[in-house]
Amino acid sequence: MLTSPAPVHRARTLADALAWRATHPHATVLAGGTDLMVFLELGSANPTSVLDLWGCTELRGISEDGRTLGALTTWTDMVRHPALPVALRDCARTVGAPQIQNRGTIGGNIVNASPAGDSLPMWLVTDATFELASVRGVRQVPASAFWLGYRKTALAPDELLVRVHLHPHAGDRLHYRKVGTRLAQAISKVVLGGRLRIEGGIVTEARVALGSVAPTPIRAHHVEAALLGKPVDPAAAAAVADDIAPIDDIRSTAAYRRTVSANVIRAWLEGEAAA
């Protein structure tokens, strides 16, 4: 039985949540709770107070054009939204079982800042910006500047993540791949997000991002540089060796992650070269 003596403030509006956050900057924020409940069960979380955002309907939903997602958007919401890129919907399908997809939120996944977070490489390759709000105002932070270290983010103590903004470009090719013990319901060993812009047969823009291979999700800048200015070259995958710093842990080994990272990038690029 999951229990905690911490008092819970159940916000019903964003204004209420921000006002309470301003006076309780050290409170634990609860979105869907799919991570927090596990941490409580393991004894690794011992909150002094909890801010429950689940009732803040302003933070729900995806815009009709798929460019703006509320922080309380669930994985099920993503799977069902026809305007989102297929790769993002594929990503959402890998996050746990249907029960987790119905309750887990993109905001929780982003702010939890696990290097194994299933969605994080996709926000990097789509050049997403995160809208952060407090009683002091609103600011936009690019995904590339949000994760500062292991489970450390650019959020100020009084801020909440409220929206994710995507900046799609017609014709860009997006790709997602998760490698784990199972397709879903397993923490990732390697996560790949990719985006290519190809004009006249030449790669003019490349984004390659990986999770579970460094303290934060990262861009594979060496791979990106190897792709630019030429037709899609699967051999560029080898450059990932200069981009990642995996570790041995209970889920996998560093050697495995290095090999798999190169393999999944190469497989993606081979598919794009043959398209």
Query: What is CATH's topology name of the domain at 173-274?
Result: Enolase-like, domain 1
Q: What distance separates the N and C termini?
A: 52 Å
The residue-averaged pLDDT reads 93
Biggest beta sheet attributes: 4 strands, antiparallel
The topology string of helices and strands comes to EHEHEEHHHHHEEEEEEEEEHH
Task: List low-confidence stretches.
Answer: none
Count of discrete alpha- or pi-helical segments spanning 4 or more residues: 9
Residue share in helix: 25-40%
* CATH class categorisation of the domain at 173-274: Alpha Beta
The side-by-side strand order for the widest beta sheet comes to 4-9-5-6
| CATH architectural name of the domain at 173-274 | 2-Layer Sandwich
What overall form do the CA principal axes indicate?
Answer: globular
In what range is the share of β-strand residues? 15-25%
Q: Supply the helix-strand structural class.
A: alpha+beta
Quick one: how many beta strands?
13
Name the CATH superfamily classification of the domain at 173-274: CO dehydrogenase flavoprotein, C-terminal domain
Radius of gyration: 19 Å
Produce a short descriptive summary.
The chain has helices spanning 14-23, 36-42, 75-80, 86-93, 98-103, 106-112, 120-125, 221-227, 254-274, and strands at 8-10, 28-30, 50-52, 68-70, 129-134, 137-142, 147-149, 152-153, 160-165, 173-179, 190-199, 202-211, 218-219. It is α+β, with helices and mostly antiparallel strands. Among the domains are: 1-58, Uridine Diphospho-n-acetylenolpyruvylglucosamine Reductase, domain 2; 173-274, CO dehydrogenase flavoprotein, C-terminal domain (Enolase-like, domain 1, 2-Layer Sandwich).
